[in-house]
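Narrative of accomplishments. A recurring question from our advisory board has been how the design workflow behaves on a single, concrete structure rather than in aggregate. To address it, we present the structure tokens for one chain from the evaluation set, followed by the sequence designed for it. No filtering or post-editing was applied between the two.
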């Protein structure tokens, strides 16, 4: 171990170098203009840099965005661009940055943090737990029929980015009202990240297309997608690559997908970050053919257990005492009494004992404590407590975070 100093970046030049800690793994170079744009989404002071002997050797950022949880939105530190120079790996730089990152979120009263993990072995030790699953699909063009052929509803138009910027955000926010795990994008995020389409991000495909579904003249859903055209042995082996297909209502989402599945002159349709209860599973006649490959999606860390538990809602009445272990954020340690939607410290005997990371997994209602208990992650101290806890924590739809941040 050496003496690292971790502190927020002071200016754009530091920010650019700190982001390069992970950028180098993507083959990037320092780029002041890109840093300036990125700082409009990730504020400079939310980017921590680890220093050694006057050099930046690591970086970790936090997007400040609200995230949907059962019953509403909660301020979230969106853990992002975490990287350590290959010259300094496994010397405690990440640990020091996570210390600063979670202390900072705590001081800012952000009840939760969330992330997408490059590897599933990294973040459990810092109290993050898998809170949602997501999957990739590749649907062959010959297997796109729905169980019941539908009358087309509404109309779909290709729109320009300006109109997309005007109409898409309300649909995304509509999704946030039905699904936990959706973060709210700022106008700059929409502009610079969602709608922007720099050629280096196209990975061999064409430009982003913006398709808007209107039903009775009102926006009801949208898709962002690209064409990747290829030919093999005289026939198209091209793809439609769905970047995101969003609609708050399931029927509208099925309609947006009907459009994407019907595009001519392709061999298949690909998409990722599809939740395991997506309407496609139920409307596609041959859902097997989409070869769903599921993995961990969003990870959640309860930065402040009391505030986080009190900010979400619960579908039924009931009370519960949780004994929370939290070695990395010891301010959460101890017993919490949850009743009437409010969590408070208690001396009462506990119903369940679990780590903060396990509670993070259960928090959005997508992973049941009964499932987590299968992995030995929950200790039931009173018979029936797991079932009672699942009654409280459950949520109708699986969490869905449609963008990796
Ligand atoms: C992952 C990464 C940030 C780790 O940084 P680091 O400074 O080497 O990590 P630390 O030395 O602080 O290790 C902290 C702990 O995490 C463990 N760890 C670190 N990286 C790990 C990995 N990839 N897999 C499993 N364990 C890992 C360490 O063994 C250590 O364990 P301990 O708590 O038992 O001591 C770094 O390897 C990196 O930049 N990787 C490439 C980019 C990347 O994957 N970033 C994450 C984006 S989500």
């Amino acid at each position: 171990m050496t003496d690292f100093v971790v502190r927020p970046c002071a200016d754009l030049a530091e920010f650019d170098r700190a982001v390069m800690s992970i950028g180098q793994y993507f083959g990037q170079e320092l780029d002041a203009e890109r840093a300036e744009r990125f700082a409009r989404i990730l504020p400079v002071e939310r980017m921590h840099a680890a220093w050694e002997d006057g050099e930046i050797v690591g970086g970790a950022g936090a997007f400040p965005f609200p995230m949907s949880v059962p019953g509403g939105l909660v301020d979230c530190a969106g853990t992002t661009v975490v990287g350590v120079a290959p010259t300094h790996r496994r010397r405690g730089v990440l640990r020091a940055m996570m210390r600063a990152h979670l202390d900072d979120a705590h001081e800012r009263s952000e009840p939760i943090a969330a992330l997408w993990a490059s590897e599933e072995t990294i973040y459990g030790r810092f109290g993050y737990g898998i809170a949602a699953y997501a999957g990739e699909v590749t649907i062959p063009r010959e297997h796109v029929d729905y169980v019941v052929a539908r009358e087309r509803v509404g109309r779909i138009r290709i729109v320009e980015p300006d109109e997309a910027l005007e109409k898409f955000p309300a649909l995304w926010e509509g999704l946030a009202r039905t699904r936990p795990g959706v973060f709210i994008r700022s106008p700059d995020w929409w502009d610079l990240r969602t709608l922007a389409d720099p050629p280096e991000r196209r990975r061999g495909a064409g430009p982003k297309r913006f398709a808007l579904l209107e039903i009775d003249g009102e926006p009801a859903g949208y898709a962002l997608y690209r064409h990747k055209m290829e030919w093999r042995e005289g026939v198209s082996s091209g793809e439609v690559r769905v970047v995101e297909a969003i609609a708050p209502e399931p029927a509208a989402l099925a309609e947006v997908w009907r459009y994407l599945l019907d595009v001519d002159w392709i061999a298949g349709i690909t998409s990722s970050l599809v939740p395991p209860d997506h309407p496609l599973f139920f409307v596609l006649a041959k859902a097997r053919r989409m070869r769903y490959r599921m993995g961990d999606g969003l990870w959640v860390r309860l930065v402040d257990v009391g505030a986080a538990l009190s900010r979400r809602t619960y579908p039924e009445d009931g009370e519960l005492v949780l004994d929370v272990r939290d070695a990395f954020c010891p301010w959460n340690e101890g017993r919490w009494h949850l009743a009437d939607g409010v969590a408070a410290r208690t001396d009462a005997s506990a119903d369940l004992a679990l780590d903060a990371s396990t509670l993070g997994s259960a928090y959005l209602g997508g992973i049941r404590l009964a499932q987590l208990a299968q992995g030995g992650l929950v200790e039931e101290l009173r018979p029936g407590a797991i079932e009672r806890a699942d009654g409280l924590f459950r949520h109708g739809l699986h969490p869905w975070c449609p963008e990796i941040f």
